[in-house]
Amino acid sequence: MTIIKKYAESYPDKIFLYEMPREKGKQYNRVERSAANRLHLLSRARGEYCAFLDGDDYYTDEEKLQKQGDVLEKEENRDCIMCAHNLWLTYDNGDKQLLCRAKKKRKITLDEYWPLMFLQANAILFRNIYQQNPPVGILAKNFDDNNITFWLFQHGKMYDLPQPMGAYRQVSGS
After folding, report:
1. Is 6 exposed, middle or buried (0-12, 13-18, 19+ CB in 10 A)?
2. pLDDT tens figures, 56-108
3. Rounded CA gap, 160 and 105, in Å?
4. String of b and e for 27-45 (b: at least 16 CB within 10 Å)?
5. What's the sign of the alpha-carbon dihedral 140, 101, 125, 20?
6. Rounded CA separation 84/123 (Å)
7. By CB distance 3.0 to 4.6 Å, which of 15, 18, 27, 35 could disulfide with 143?
């Protein structure tokens, strides 16, 4: 947290630190707390695009966000609300495997997505539509991987890149 605070102090016009209040000793519902945090951050996001990266996951390609943004900027992809990529599933013992078997770049609709793949939220860069289209009901209460993807599909297609650019850690308790 010290490093993040230093960045926020050094770049106050670009980096904003929001900390979720936490009562010492209180047990929280992990999914609901994570959902509340994501929605809180989206309500304050002012950029054209948004992305999530949970604390136990990481990006493996330094140009990931640029590559995804470039895809979404193309005129022929204006019907895409998000750009996603494959992920490495990484394990404590050092093993890793690809999350999806997709082999080609392509646009995907909601009907194609569910039987074809599952992607964790850190694989997605999406257009900032929160202010006009916030998730409601069960989507808001449980704003996690599948519900984030489902919410986005209500507003456009996914452009899928088959190369892995991030890691989804498989560790107990994460």
Report:
1. exposed
2. 899 999 999 999 999 999 999 999 999 999 999 999 898 999 998 888 999 99
3. 6
4. eeeeeeebbbbbbeebeee
5. positive
6. 5
7. 35
Tokens of 126: 């999406």
Residues in contact with 172: Cβ distance below 8 Å, sequence separation at least 6, in sequence order: 92
Residue 91, classed as helix, strand or coil, is strand
Average pLDDT for 45-59: 92
Cα gap 123→121, rounded to integer Å:
5
DSSP label at residue 75: G
Residue 81 DSSP SS3: strand
Nearest in space to 53 (alpha carbons), one of 132, 173, 169, 136:
169
Return the pLDDT at 21: 86
Residue predicted with more confidence, 3 or 102: 3
Query: Which residues, other chains included, contact 59 with Cβ-Cβ below 8 Å and sequence gap of 6+?
Result: 53, 122, 165, 166, 167
Q: What are the DSSP E strand ranges found in 45-151?
A: 49-51, 58-59, 80-91, 96-98, 106-108, 124-127
> From the CB of residue 71, how many other CB atoms can be counted at a distance below 10 Å?
20
